[in-house]
Every structure is written in structure tokens, then in C-alpha cells.
Write a structure and sequence with these properties.
31% of the residues lie in helices and 25% in strands. By secondary structure, it is α+β, with helices and mostly antiparallel strands.
Amino acid sequence: MYQTIIIGGGPSGLMAAVAASEQSQNVLLLEKKKGLGRKLKISGGGRCNVTNRLPYAEIIKNIPGNGKFLYSPFSVFDNESIIDFFESRGVKLKEEDHGRMFPVSNKSQDVVDTLVNTIKQNKVDIKEETIVNDINVEDNGTFSVITDKGIFSSKSVIIATGGTSVPQTGSTGDGYKFAQKLGHSITELFPTEVPITSAEAFIKSKELKGLSLKDVELSVLKKNGKKRISHKMDMIFTHFGISGPAALRCSQFVYKEQKSQNKKEIKMQLDVFPEFKNHLLEEKITSIL
């Protein structure tokens, strides 16, 4: 009988295991893939955007839906707490544009290693390559977590399985099924910060693949051609479309426009020199030529 069973070995599951194991030495972490923090390793282009140092109001403004719910957890553990957590364990962080915090080493593996080493020091039982098939609530209020490696019991369960944005890392939406069975309501699901795909010829030809642009303005356009949202940040062209901070921030609005316009293809606009008005840009290009 465990005090807590955590399902999912991604960033949320690892941090949950840290917090739970500080209160109890009887914690089990279940991960269906081999290796912990798989999505964390590839985040931020392999550098891992650990947190953000902007004021609460700025962070919450960019949270989809009712971001104000974060004020409550922030009162217990906020962005500065995250920075202290890693720096106190030897992972120094640096601040980049828009308050983004990265490891000084630029290695996401350092972040993963810190989390994994902490839960091991706290004696968390870790079972990788263990698939959770079901969760049952027993008559005495305890939970039975049914896996392909056996049944594990606990007094509490934390579902930290992630969404469905990167299924190859193990995020296939299992948690929604478990939560619904346990009596939770599942609201409409939609992507919030994911890369954007495109069928444009120049994307398919991969001629711009790997091209990184700094401080550009990326916009999602409404049906009338006006901007629904714009983000002035970095972005990168990929073999399937675009990615990077600007694209990730715009992605939820692509979805919302798809829904409102009832179509799959949504127009976007890229301004490579957002600080210049048209006539000033023409003058600058002319002077260079």
C-alpha cells in the first residue's frame, strides 16, 4: 500500500513525485515508456524553457481560458520557487527574452537529471515501461491501479499523463479516460502551445527548414484579414511548418479560428521587421542596395 501513486513520468509527474516524497517516503511513480522526462528533454529546442520570470499578471495573461486560477497555487509555489529549486541543486538558470528562463548550460538533460536524482534521493519507487490500464476505487476509499505488471494500491493517485501533442513521448491522452472514470468532467480539449503545420509549397519543399528568425511578429488572421492575435518573438521553420515561441503562442488561436471559420486552413502573417513601417523598410533596403 503506497501513500501516493503518480501516473506519468513527465515534468508534472516528476515534480509531483518530488512534492509527495517530501511528505511521505511511500510514493510510486509509474511511466509507460523507458526513460523519464522524455518531453522535457526535447522542450525549448533541447535547452528546456524551465519557467518565466515575468510578473504574475503577464504570465497569467498568456494562459488560455481562466488563467487566474494560478494565483492560488502561485501563493504556495511560484516561478521564483522553481528557480530556487533548480539553482539550489546546482542548475544555474539565465533569463532570456520575454522573461524565459533556461539552464546556463543550455542542456535540458541537466533539468531532467535534477528531478530524477531528487526523487531517487527521496526513495520514490520508479517503475518504467509499465502501462496503466485502469484505476478502481475500493470500498475503503483506496485506489487500485491496474497495470500490465500487476496491481498497485494507494491512498491517493495523481494523474500526470499529459495531453496528446507529442504521442511518441507517451502523451496519448490516457489521463482523460482515467479522470472521467473517477467522476471528473472533461471539458472541450484543444491544443494550447504546439508547433503549427502547413501544406504550403515552400514548407513541403523544405527550402526554409532550419531557418531561425529572431524577434519577428507572427499573426493569426481572422476571416476578414484582420489580426486575431500577434506575438513578437522568435520562430523557426521546420520540415512540417513552423515552431518556436511565436508559433507556440499562436497555436491555440489557429485552432480557435479553425473552429469559428469551420475550416482547416487558416491564414497567418509573418512580419520579419515589425519595428519598421513600410516606407522606412523600403528606405533601409534601398540604402543597402
